[in-house]
Sequence to fold (165 residues):
Amino acid sequence: MSSVTERKPPGVSFESWIDKQIRLAQERGDFDDLPGAGKPIPAGDVNDELWWVKNYLRRENLPTDSLLPTPLQLRKEIERLPDTIRGLPSERAVRDVVAQLNLQIVDWLRAPSGPRIPVSPVDADEVVAIWRQQNQPARKPNVTASPEPDPDPPRTGTRWWRRRR
Fold:
């Protein structure tokens, strides 16, 4: 544990103690070959307090949804479920995706954190029904050459029971 420093001796100011620790670390070469050495610190938008978070998300190629609280992330996943299951090859795969999502939901329900937003498990049968509906081949409607005329065209005028008044 050579990287752990000793305690500040009594009577020494914090500033001089810290300066001494930095100087000793430089002499040992602890700051040599650090990633980003020699590069300027990227300046962010001065008016934006979260510029560093946005840069981190962009740099790590993370979705902005990862910043949301857990219940909102789960609700977004539930909303995206029809798109998620669209390309799946079998009913078993659809049920596995729903089961995985339901496990995450149940884990959150057991130990909720963040805002109290209602989230409930997804019904696998409903999702499978949506999947079946999405994967049905598109049927072409039967087109006849010409529509047949109605044998009894609708009558206009008054009805017999209104004529007697």
About this structure: The chain is about 45% helix and 0% strand.
